[in-house]
Write a structure and sequence with these properties.
Order of helices and strands: HHHHHHEHEEHHHHEHHH
Strand content: under 5%
Largest sheet: 2 strands, antiparallel
CATH topology: ABC transporter involved in vitamin B12 uptake, BtuC
Number of helices: 14
Structural class: mainly alpha
Shape: globular
Length: about 350
């Protein structure tokens, strides 16, 4: 008995032939778009913004975007550890407001030399409290940090008496170097961002602690049975987050030598958007510091482009929401290997 011509081994027909002709199946195309779709969209944004305004790719504008993104970027570096460990930190915006207000108030009271370490100590205490509740008491990170967002905001208003803070003698202090200074023509905020990214990137990628963070986020139960102290890892991730937030608060306060008591309000969503844009998964276990830096820059250039084409600043909030939805969708699509659910 012989096979029919259409049934011979090695012969394909219909959709299979089309897939072989193109070299990629629909599933492979979907997987590619899920992983690289946000970068493709960013390239299209860049092309569109450049055509709309030739100042977009000017060197001074590029340097300005990186500088203005540095504060958000420093915060995102720390939160990356939290997200990779499988948790969230929604308190970073209000915590940054607290840090900026405290360091400005203490600057005039005890001088910048003592004000800076005192502010860092107070901010680290808030991060340690987050880490204790989530790591050791095993409370839900979303609920804990959402509650801390409100609590720290209230603490900031109580500390400041509802008033904004300014340094009395702005001409006679060296405090402005962290937000206004330059070294070899490069703004100090960019240098701080780059230095922290290099250090934390090395910690995450090259140290035993970094491997434990990935293990806890990938499978917490398996990590525990492997001898990893899960609670301790989560605790130090939140401590790392608060350290970066304190640094961002210092940069923000130094930038204008004054601050509103709500200066960090809403930044927690932008931080998460940048981290997700960088490829970190909200489910934990994946992401890198380098990709977070890329995500921060993508968000910064998109926001800058929107302003250059004449859109109002509040349009950024809508765009940020769209980016978050798109990035989460692509993250889930990358996990299942297709853009749409098989049920749909």
């Amino acid at each position: 008995m012989t096979d029919a011509p259409g049934d011979r081994p090695g012969r394909t027909s219909g959709p299979r032939q089309e897939e072989e002709a193109t070299g990629m199946s629909k599933e492979q195309i979907g997987r590619f778009l899920a992983r690289q779709g946000i970068l493709i969209a960013f390239v299209l944004f860049i092309i569109g913004f450049t055509l709309a305004n030739n100042r977009f790719l000017a060197p001074d504008n590029i340097m300005g975007v990186i500088r203005s993104s540095a504060i958000l970027g420093v915060m995102a570096l720390g939160v990356t550890f939290v997200v990779i460990s499988g948790n969230l930190d929604l308190s970073v915006g209000s915590m940054m407001s607290f840090s900026a207000i405290v360091v400005l108030d203490l600057h005039d009271a005890i001088g910048p030399g003592l004000a800076i370490p005192a502010m860092f100590a107070m901010t680290l205490a808030l991060g340690a409290f987050n880490g204790f509740l989530v790591g050791y008491l095993k409370l839900n990170s979303l609920i804990v940090t959402l509650g801390m967002l409100s609590a720290i905001h209230g603490l900031t208003l109580t500390y400041s008496g509802g008033k904004n803070m300014d340094i009395a003698d702005k001409e006679g202090t060296w405090f402005g170097v962290f937000g206004q200074g330059t070294i070899l023509g490069i703004p100090v905020p960019i240098l701080i961002f780059a230095l922290l990214a290099a250090i934390l990137g090395t910690v995450l990628a090259k140290t035993p602690f970094g491997r434990k963070v990935y293990a806890v986020g990938g499978n917490g139960v398996a990590a525990t049975f492997s001898g990893i102290r899960r609670a301790r890892v989560v605790f130090f991730c939140y401590l790392m987050s608060s350290l970066c937030v304190a640094t961002a608060g210092l940069m923000q306060a130094s930038r204008s030598l004054g601050s509103q008591n709500t200066v960090g309000q809403g930044l927690e969503l932008e931080v998460l958007a940048a981290i997700i844009l960088g490829g970190a998964s909200l489910m934990g276990g994946s992401g890198t510091i380098f990709k977070t830096v890329i995500g921060v820059l993508i968000l910064g250039f998109i926001q800058n482009g929107l302003l250059l084409v004449g859109l109002q600043f509040y349009v950024q909030y809508v765009v940020t929401w769209i980016i978050i939805i798109l990035a989460v969708w692509l993250d889930i699509a990358a996990k299942r290997g297709r853009l749409l659910s098989a049920i749909a």
